[in-house]
Design goal:
Length: about 475
């Protein structure tokens, strides 16, 4: 290696002897990554067995890492160490966050109320209307934690349960990549699937939301859970069950973040393509099975809004106790307006948040912070099938419509947190795009992505 002659020469001079241990460490690191890249480049595209080199400790270590990250349960164990470890590092794991508002909504539901029965110590971002407090966020997360609030009370630790849902998400991503490969929708060997799971765990904005709790993070994390369950139902099940459970999962997504229902465009089209023959009766039955939970969920949402504000289309955002940072724009332009599009697009897709400054917490470019997502553009280059690429793209574009129109970029945040809303179809589009990429390129981009969020760790854990 390049460092070997330098090390030998310096060893002859006592003046340089104190830095020899550092040079040895540098040499070891260089050698490790050289061998790692060599092994990745020699990896057969259809297997993870490294046939061209005799077994070695590093060989077995790489193979074990690939097996662990590709397996849903293995990936979840690693994610648990990471996410709960960061919560422990920040000290947040020992207490509820400052904004565990879904706990208060669940408590209200348990007592037959739609308004908060108890007032939280912090009221920032709550809706205040007619002398009552509530949320403009949709209520599904409160229903999910309902039995736990019954057992543990309003002090249920939202940091822990948000992290647990995030850990589940990692396992679901691994399972989705397995299932889509088995169905031959994707053609990804094990090594590429494992790197994608690693990338999602540490190299996307999901990493910054998982360990911190708080109402906004909980909604984003659980919304992702519902969306990926819908995609898994479409890929894993068949017949009426596939339609019903896809619709059921999308109902949970809609009742968490309303626009997430549009991520269901792709699974709906995919289910249609799996039909062997056309039948009006079967088509109507399947659509009815998918639509049934969605219609019930929509009906509840409209009732929930009407019962609180007298208007089924009013979620209360006009009455929320916003930060002063947003008030001037809100009073002039409202909550959603084309006026916000340029600044939102800039902070979500262009702005690079390093070096760290106050502006960093406005967001960060999705593609610069998580450069493996550039692989999504590769899906448009000579695709095996055109329709999945375009339908996934359509699902992303329609689901993201409200995001640039919103009055806030997501501040305070590290990375573009609202892009998690469409990360499931974006991950599949990326997986399609990197099918022909060398594993070493994928691994390096995943490392760069992870490095961004790890370097920012001391800052985003303080948000």
């Amino acid at each position: 290696m390049l460092l070997t002659p330098c090390r030998s020469a310096m060893g002859r001079y006592g003046l340089f002897r104190p830095i020899i241990p550092l040079l040895r460490l540098a040499y070891s690191i260089e050698n490790f990554f050289h061998e790692l890249m060599l092994k990745f480049s020699l990896m057969d595209t259809n297997t993870t067995v490294l046939d061209k080199n005799p077994p070695s400790f590093l060989n077995r270590l790489i193979q074990a890492a690939i097996n662990i990250w590709e397996a849903p349960y293995g990936a979840m164990i690693f994610a648990a160490f990471i996410y709960l470890g960061i919560s422990l590092y920040s000290g947040r794991i020992f207490t509820i966050s400052r904004f565990p508002y879904f706990n208060y909504l669940a408590d209200a539901f348990l007592n037959g109320q739609l308004w908060f029965r108890q007032i939280p110590p912090e009221t920032h971002d709550l809706v205040y209307f007619a002398g009552h407090y509530s949320l403009y966020q949709s209520p599904f997360p409160a229903f999910v934690i309902l039995p736990f609030i019954r057992i543990f009370g309003i002090g249920l630790n939202d940091v822990v349960y948000t992290a647990l849902f995030a850990i589940l998400n990692v396992g679901l991503v691994a399972q989705l990549l397995r299932v889509t490969t088995k169905n031959q929708f994707l053609r990804l060997p094990k090594i590429q699937r494992s790197v994608l799971v690693f990338f999602f765990t540490l190299g996307t904005v999901h990493f910054t939301l998982a360990p911190n709790g708080r109402v906004w993070n909980t909604a984003l994390i659980l919304g992702f859970t519902c969306v990926i369950l819908a995609y898994l139902a479409a890929f894993s099940l068949s017949g009426p069950k596939a339609w019903f459970f896809t619709g059921l999962a999308l109902t949970g997504a809609m009742l968490t973040r309303n626009h997430l229902v549009f991520t269901g465009i792709f699974p709906a089209v995919y289910l249609f393509t799996r039909e062997n023959s056309w039948s009006w009766g079967r088509t109507f039955r399947n659509l009815a099975l998918a639509a049934l939970p969605l219609m019930i969920g929509l009906g509840f949402l409209l009732y929930y809004n009407h019962a609180r504000f007298g208007n089924p289309l009013d979620n209360g955002i006009a009455y929320h106790l916003m930060a002063d940072f947003f008030r001037k724009n809100f009073e002039q332009y409202g909550a959603f307006n084309l006026h916000y599009v340029p600044i939102n697009l800039y902070y979500q897709y262009i702005f690079y948040p390093f070096p760290i400054s106050n502006e960093t917490f406005m967001g960060g470019s999705l593609f610069l912070m998580s450069p493996l997502f550039f692989g999504a553009f590769g899906a448009f280059w000579k695709p095996r099938q055109k329709w999945p690429v375009w339908i996934l793209t359509l699902s992303i574009l329609i689901a993201m419509i409200p995001i640039p129109l919103l009055m806030g970029t997501g501040w305070a945040q590290f990375g573009p947190r609202y892009t998690l809303d469409f990360t499931v179809p974006l991950l599949l589009l990326t997986a399609l795009g990197i099918e022909r990429w060398k594993p070493a390129v994928i691994f390096i981009l995943a490392l760069i992505s992870s490095a961004h969020f790890i370097i920012g760790l001391p800052y985003w854990t303080l948000i």
